[in-house]
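quick one, 163 residues, struct below
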Amino acid sequence: MSAARGIALGVIAGALAVLIFHQGMYYLLATSNMGVSGQPWRTNPVPLWPELMRAVGAQPFTVPTLASQMIWGGLWGGLFGAFAERIPGGPIWVKALIFAFIFPMLLGSWLLLPLVRGTQLLSGFLTDYNPVRLRTGFLLNGLAFGLGLGIIYSLLRSRRGET
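---
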């Protein structure tokens, strides 16, 4: 499979993984009293990349929350798709799960985003070493998104007749 095709399938798989798996997990967490507030599949407007827009001197514009999350999922999925075929061993869903634990969860949500926003690293885990602080990110951005990305990416590949 070409790199461009892998990226395209990854973008689609990542966006759909957010829509179905990530938000599905959010729903389960919110309805099971797991300390998650708000509603899944939100459409309230949020600024898209406000830090980047301000850095380049542009006025931030808003998109629905779900659209913003799907854009980010698509970007992470595209990155996965660019390298998925080059990662040795194992089924695609395992590769996607490991990718999601390292990149969107650890690097994105727990390290880079807090640095950009000026919030606490690792969801505040370093303040009291309470592992419950890591649970939501682990379940949403690692487990749910990773499994969704892997399953959907695999389905898209098999639909195209690729192994």
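The chain has a mean pLDDT of 89.
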